[in-house]
Amino acid sequence: MGPKLTRDHALFLDLDGTLLEFAPTAEEVAVPAGLGAMLRGLAAQRDGALAILSGRSLAQIDAVTAAPFPAGAEHGFVLRDAAGRIHHPVRQTANRAAWRAALEAAAAAHPGVRIEAKSASLVAHYRASPEAGPALGAMIGAMIAEAPEVERLAANMAWEIRPRGAGKGRALEWFMARPPFAGRVPVFVGDDVTDEEAIAAAAALGGHGLHVHRDFDGTPAAVLAWLGSALAPGRV
């Protein structure tokens, strides 16, 4: 279980697998009742020092949270600060169009595989066709072998081509250097390999990097109960 949350903590939260149960597609994910209100309460409790760090796009994050919180979208490629300003710390990939065409051709041969084009990265989702995962991973590895500006990211039932220099760990560090996060103790919660760098970054800054399966009971419900307890009367 996580630490007792106080007003001095800055909260950084992943979405899928952390606050939300997984579903075949992002559009099918069920948003827990009252999630937006709880997040608004937690943010207000610490003067706005709550950010969402997710692989989702900003629009998808906002649809889930029902409010434009500070966010590191697309694994930190798109950053929105507390004033609502958008920042792009790294550039888009050079071979995006060719890679997308190749991935969509591969998806056509594997029913259930879905290709998602984000603003800078490309994702091959194979949750509905798990047997296609190894072949897609090998294909992407070969495809980007001579493109040092990008990397292949293994996500939960997905492979992602993303620009180097982004990442949830860097996003957390970026927020911690700015108000209202600066001077607080960071607490990050995530569930996936893509979250490990943010878990490490929070710990390196003197805070808490928490994993849904290592520090809770492996379910978003446990994380939500822990977060909700911080809003109980008498808890600060």
Characterization of this structure:
- The chain is an alpha/beta fold and 236 residues long.
- The protein folds into two domains: 9-88 and 166-229, 3-Layer(aba) Sandwich (Rossmann fold), CATH 3.40.50; 96-163, Alpha-Beta Plaits, CATH 3.30.70.1020.
- It has eight helices and eleven strands.
- A hairpin with a 4-residue loop joins strand 6 (114-117) and strand 7 (122-125).
- The two termini are 17 Å apart.
- The model has no long low-confidence stretch (mean pLDDT 92).
- Its cofactor is Mg(2+).
- It holds the Pfam family Trehalose_PPase.
- Belongs to the trehalose phosphatase family.
- It comes from Acidiphilium multivorum (strain DSM 11245 / JCM 8867 / NBRC 100883 / AIU 301).
Q: Which SSEs are present, and which pair or pack?
A:
Blueprint (H helix, E strand, L loop, with lengths): L8 E5 L21 H11 L4 E4 L4 H8 L5 E3 L4 E3 L5 E2 L8 H13 L5 E4 L4 E4 L7 H11 L6 E6 L2 E6 L4 H9 L8 E6 L5 H9 L3 E4 H4 L4 H10 L7
Parallel strand pairs: 1-2, 1-10, 2-3, 10-11
Antiparallel strand pairs: 3-4, 4-5, 6-7, 7-9, 8-9
Helix pairs in contact: 5-6
Structural class: alpha/beta
Unreliable stretches covering 5 or more consecutive residues: none
The biggest sheet, with number of strands, parallel, antiparallel or mixed sense and barrel status, is: 7 strands, mixed
| Structure annotation, total helices | 8
Overall outline: globular
Ends apart, CA distance between termini? 17 Å
Task: Provide the CATH architecture of the largest domain.
Answer: 3-Layer(aba) Sandwich
Number of strands: 11
Q: What's the rounded overall pLDDT mean?
A: 92
Strand order of the largest sheet: 5-4-3-2-1-10-11
Question: If you consult CATH, what is the topology of the largest domain?
Answer: Rossmann fold
Helix content: 25-40%
Q: Which range does the strand content fall in?
A: 15-25%
Keywords: Hydrolase, Magnesium, Metal-binding
Cofactor: Mg(2+)
Pathway: Glycan biosynthesis; trehalose biosynthesis
Catalytic activity: alpha,alpha-trehalose 6-phosphate + H2O = alpha,alpha-trehalose + phosphate
